Amino acid sequence: MNFELTEEQEMIRDAARDFAQRELLAGVIERDENATYPKEQVKRLGELGFLGMLVSPEYDGGGMDTVSYVLAMEEISKVDASVSVIMSVNNSLVCWGVQKYGSEAQKEEFLKPMARGDKIGAFLLSEPEAGSDATSQRTTAVDMGDHYLVNGIKNWITSGGTASVYLLIAHTHPEKKHHGINAFLIDSKLEGISVGPHENKMGMRASDTHSVMFNNVKIPKENRLGEDGQGFTIAMRSLEGGRIGIASQALGLASGAYELALQYAQERKTFGKEIFKHQAIAFKLADMAVEIEAARFFCLKAAWLKDQGKPYGQASAMAKLYAAETAMKVTTEAVQIHGGNGYVKEYHVERLMREAKLTQIYEGTSEIQKIVISRGLLA
Amino acid sequence: MKILVCISNVPDTTTKVKFTDNNKQVDDAGVQWIINPWDELALTRAIELKEDGNNSIDEVCVINVGLSKCDATLRKALAIGADKAIRIDADPIDAYYVAAQIADYLKNNPFDIVLSGIESSDYNGSSVGGMLSEFMDCPAISSMTKLEIENGNVTIHRAIPGGKQILELTTPFVGIVQKGITNEPRIPAMRGIMMARKKPLEVLSAVEMESLSHIVEFELPVAKASCKMIDAEHLEELVNLLKSEAKVL
Ligand SMILES: Cc1cc2nc3c(=O)[nH]c(=O)nc-3n(C[C@H](O)[C@H](O)[C@H](O)COP(=O)(O)OP(=O)(O)OC[C@H]3O[C@@H](n4cnc5c(N)ncnc54)[C@H](O)[C@@H]3O)c2cc1C
Ligand SMILES: Cc1cc2nc3c(=O)[nH]c(=O)nc-3n(C[C@H](O)[C@H](O)[C@H](O)COP(=O)(O)OP(=O)(O)OC[C@H]3O[C@@H](n4cnc5c(N)ncnc54)[C@H](O)[C@@H]3O)c2cc1C
């Protein structure tokens, strides 16, 4: 047992912190307010290597471990979760699957530019009728001999409008249920693909979320990822890792809000003393600190298991559930500690609270995590 | 051309300073060490110059006089982009000791440009750079806010009260770096952090020498007195306080 970070892990955490504080903080309120895509910031994220930090150096990635990824995600999410969700989707939902299941040609064409940050990846699983129940895929990819013909609609796609690479999930053999689902790795500009309007969201407003329509889109055979029928496995395995990313995002939202609240509580005075000296406020901060620490342990444990090559599905579901619930609770309390100021945008905590809500919903709702965890209990 | 950047390992600027050993030692328990902010700017500028094809800088090295706890700081310098790090293994007692150790290294390992920060944020001696130039018998340019090299020609700006001075000079020289030399210290990229694993960090033993000074005692600055605001309408209260508390009336 060892709770020490390595020197390199600390260096990565500090680099992420410096980047977030110096380059994300300044415009974050305006980007949220106007739902402006953080183009420059994502470019810098790529230059610094965060977009492909988990990809092996052989494919132009940073070759960093998952523990470092948790640390970087936390620091970036403290300041701007719209940026960190782009990082999480690119690293764990798209690059990971290509590195694990992709052919050499696919890695050359898609993985390398994504790892360098030259191209952004999006993960297209959810549909209007298939969110929690991801097996009810209605998008079809019919095998036409030399290509697949794809029709259908994908919903709520992060980076849907900006990504150049799509990892698409669609049904080829509906009679085989989820064993008939395929995954494809495609250029987002293929003929027949159209993107719906930018969703006007409650939080993470600067990340672009869109529906994506497929109308007789021809996908060459060599763009299938993995074996025929392996798509659902690829999607679920990707989500197992993705949950570590979203759990760390939730952790960052919580710890970011906590740090602001702790600071505020030492500055704001009521009834002649700093509000931190009112026990009701001090105890809130104590509870927040304890829950954040627990969430951090969950995230790091899941990451460590993944780095050790051990099963991490159960641990990542626990981390995602606990961290998301903690984020919601802690950000709400942070608004409370800020009083009226907490309800005003310039103090950041109201935004963190709006963003925290999403971590309970995407990449498997909190209810779905409990399904995953409870099934795991009997496994 | 080769540039050597002197790196001082200093406590993070938010550190709460405490002392031990009868106030003769700084207590470094729990201290986060960082690259002295001016040195980080100097290093960033050196790397920018190396990356810019218009000059012939082919090596940027960093040097520190310190104990093994400085290694993490040196590896960060390597991750930012330095090619090689040298640590002279000694507990640096004062600026003279540091400058003499670096000068000794330079005797057998000449560099064209040596950069130091204008001060180290721990002891603020502002003396290593100047002493080093004396040891090296070359010019020292203090308060350098700009460093350009084109085809071997060096142009430097210095901040002087109310304006700036522009100089041209030949190598070797010691440049003592002030803020402005570059915009922001560079953040190490994942690739840099990965490459730093393979870059050399050489540890050399120090030359025997006496330090010229010794510490008698440290003292913290007196805490700022708190300020009482009195409403303009309550003048008697002000008078009372001046009498009873401040005792100036
Ligand atoms: C901003 C945003 C970004 C997103 N990005 C992506 C993306 O990049 N790629 C992608 O593929 N998807 C993405 N999603 C989709 C997201 O993953 C789904 O919204 C999520 O999985 C929930 O699905 P749903 O919206 O259909 O809700 P539903 O499945 O309709 O769930 C509604 C409610 O019912 C509960 N529920 C459902 N089934 C059960 C059950 N069996 N037992 C108990 N409770 C249940 C749920 O927990 C939830 O509370 C994104 C969503 C949002 C909002
Ligand atoms: C009481 C005392 C205790 C100290 N304890 C420690 C200790 O525990 N650990 C430790 O590492 N240092 C220690 N030092 C050394 C200190 O960190 C400085 O390195 C040294 O005193 C020079 O400081 P200065 O303020 O005069 O430097 P300045 O002249 O202000 O520094 C200017 C520039 O010189 C260069 N420089 C300064 N110091 C070094 C260095 N050591 N190596 C390379 N370049 C340098 C940098 O470029 C810096 O920007 C101690 C110093 C004192 C006075």
Account of the protein in words:
The complex is a heterodimer of chains A (379) and B (249). Chain A is of the alpha+beta class. Chain A folds into 3 domains: 114 residues, Butyryl-Coa Dehydrogenase, subunit A, domain 1, CATH 1.10.540; 109 residues, Butyryl-CoA Dehydrogenase, subunit A, domain 2 (Beta Barrel), CATH 2.40.110.10; 146 residues, Butyryl-CoA Dehydrogenase, subunit A, domain 3 (Up-down Bundle), CATH 1.20.140.10. Chain A is built from 12 helices and 10 strands. In chain A, helix 5 runs antiparallel to helix 7 and helix 9 runs antiparallel to helix 11. The longest helix of chain A has 37 residues. The mean pLDDT of chain A is 97. Chain B is an alpha/beta fold. Chain B has one domain: HUPs (Rossmann fold, 3-Layer(aba) Sandwich), CATH 3.40.50. Helices cover 26% and strands 28% of the residues of chain B. Chain B contains 6 helices and 13 strands. In chain B, the strands form 3 sheets. In chain B, strands 11-10-9-12-8-1-6-7-13 form a 9-stranded mixed sheet, with helices on both faces. Chain B has a two-stranded antiparallel sheet with strand order 2-5. In chain B, helix 2 packs across helix 5. Chain B starts with a strand and ends in a 5-residue tail after the last helix. The model of chain B has no long low-confidence stretch (mean pLDDT 91). At the A-B interface, helix 1 of A face helix 2 and helix 5 of B. The site of one flavin-adenine dinucleotide has 30 residues of chain B, from helix 1, strand 6, helix 3, strand 8 and helix 4.
